[in-house]
Amino acid sequence: MPKVTLSVIKADVGGFVGHSSVHPELLETVREHLTKEGTFLTDFYVTHVGDDIELIMTHEKGVDNEEVHKLAWDAFVAATDVAKKLKLYGAGQDLLSDAFSGNIKGMGPGVAEMEFEERRSEPVIVFMADKTEPGAWNFPLFKMFADPFNTPGLVIDPSMHKGFDFEVHDLIDNKKVTFHCPEEMYDMLVFIGAPGRYCVRAVFSRTTGEIAASSSTQRLNLMAGRYVGKDDPVCVVRCQSGLPAVGEALEPFARPHLVAGWMRGSHHGPLMPCSMTQCNPTRFDGPPRVVALGFQISSGKLIGPQDFFADPSYDNARMIANHLSDYLRSLGPFEPHRLGLEDLEYTTMPDVMKRLSGRLLPID
Ligand code: 13P
Ligand code: 13P
Ligand code: MG
Ligand code: MG
Questions:
Q1: Is residue 363 in a domain?
Q2: Residue 245: CB within 6 Å of ligand 1?
C-alpha cells in the first residue's frame, strides 16, 4: 500500500462578522474548488474554526508537495474573491503574497502535514485553534507525549515506555533541535515553556521512529519590521497502538491553559475547548478556542468526523475558561492580560514616544 499523506492547511481569507466566523459561501467555494481541481486527493473535509478555513486533505503525494499546496492556495484565492464581493472583514488577510511560489509555507496560510504507512487502524485527531499562535500546542503536546500524569500509557504500555522525540523550532533564529524524552525533558522545558519563540513542530515515537504529531509551526517572515506568520494554528495527532489513546490526546484540554492571541492578537487568554457549533469567538473576539475533530483513516479516506469537544465532560473546562476570562478581562490594558511590549501585534508606542520625546528627561 502506498503511504498516506494527511495535509491540513488553513487560512483566514475574510471574517464574517468581524473576526468571528466564516461565511458559508466561502466554504462552498472552497469545497467546489477541491472537488473540481483536486482529483488527485484521496479525500478531503472542509470546515472552519472561528474565522479560519480548514482544509483537511489526504493524498499520496507526500509532504511539501507543490501540487497540493497550489490547490490549497488557489482555493483560498477563490474564497478571497467571494470575501471581497461580500466585503467580509480582512478579505485575503492570510494570503501575504500576490502569487503562489511553489510552497505555501511562509506565504500566510498554516500547514500541518504528515506522511505515514496506514496502520491496521488509523485514528487521528485534527486540532484547530482560533485567536492564538502555534506555541499554543506546546503545553498539550508535552502533556500528551511526555507527562505520565496525563498519559498513563507512558508508564504501562510497553510500546510507549521508551518515550518520544520532540522536534522544537526556534522561530526567531530559525534553528531546530530534537529532544529525547523523558531523559531530556527538563532541557526541553527551558525552551518550550516560552511558546512565543520555541514551538514543537513534530513528535516521533522512539519505539518505531514513526511520526506521531505535526503542527503548523513555521518560520516567521520579517515584514515591515514585524514578524508575521504566527497565526491561528493546527495540529495533527495520531492515536492508539504505541501512541497516546484518543482520550490521552484530548485530556490536556480539560484544564485550559493560557495562550497568546485573543483581542487584536495582543492578549493572553484561556484556550477554550469547544464543539463545532460553539467555535465562533465573540467575547472580546475570544476567548481563544480549540476544536478537535477525530477521523479513522481507511485506505486514505477520512471516516468522520467525530466532534470530540462536544462531549459534556468538557463543560467544566469551558466554565474554568469563562472564569479565567472574567478575571483576565478585569486587568484591562495591564500585563499579563495584555502581552508584553515585544509581542504586541498592535502598538502605538513609537508614536507616543515621538510625541513625548521632548518631555523625556534623565533621572538624576
Ligand atoms: P478498549 O479496551 O475499549 O479498546 O480501550 C483501550 C484504550 O486504549 C482506552 O484508552
Ligand atoms: P484573527 O487572527 O483570528 O483574524 O483575529 C485577529 C484579531 O484582531 C482579533 O481581535
Ligand atoms: Mg481574522
Ligand atoms: Mg483567526
A1: no
A2: yes
Q: Which residues line ligand 2 (CB under 6 A)?
A: 12, 19, 50-51, 93, 130-131, 231-232, 263-265, 285
Answer yes or no: is 124 within a domain: yes
The answer to whether residues 33 and 66 belong to one domain is yes
Q: Are 269 and 154 in contact (CB under 8 A)?
A: no
Please confirm, yes or no, whether 227 is among the known catalytic residues. yes
Which domain does 106 fall in, by range? Answer: 1-117
Residue 311 catalytic?
Answer: no
Q: Report how far residue 48's alpha carbon sits from residue 222's, in angstroms, rounded to the nearest whole number.
A: 27
| Active-site residue flag, 10 | no
Same domain, 44 and 149: no
Q: What is the DSSP string of 239-264?
A: -SSSS--HHHHHGGGGSPPEEEESGG
Is 181 found in the same domain as 66? no
Cell 482520550 appears where?
A: 247
Tens digit of each residue's pLDDT, the chain (364 residues): 899 999 999 999 999 999 999 999 999 999 999 999 999 999 999 999 999 999 999 999 999 999 999 999 999 999 999 999 999 999 998 898 888 888 888 788 999 999 999 999 999 999 999 999 999 999 999 999 999 999 999 999 999 999 999 999 999 899 999 999 999 999 999 999 999 999 999 999 999 999 999 999 987 766 656 666 668 999 999 999 999 999 999 999 999 999 999 999 999 999 999 999 999 999 999 999 999 999 999 999 999 999 999 999 999 999 999 999 999 999 999 999 999 998 887 889 889 999 999 999 999 8
Q: Same domain, yes or no, for 294 and 170? A: yes
Q: Is the CB of 243 under 6 A from ligand 1?
A: no
Distance from Cα 105 to the centre of ligand 2, integer Å? 20
Same structural domain, 183 and 136: yes
Q: Please tell me whether the overall predicted TM-score, pTM, comes out greater than 0.85 for this model.
A: yes
Q: Is residue 104 domain-shared with residue 210, that is, in the same domain? A: no
Is 62 a pocket residue for ligand 1 (Cβ < 6 Å)?
A: no
Query: What does 282-325 look like in DSSP terms, one character per residue?
Result: -BTTBS-EEEEEEEEEETTEEEEEEEGGGSGGGHHHHHHHHHHH
Q: How many domains does the chain have?
A: 2
Q: Is 279 in the pocket of ligand 1 (CB under 6 A)?
A: no
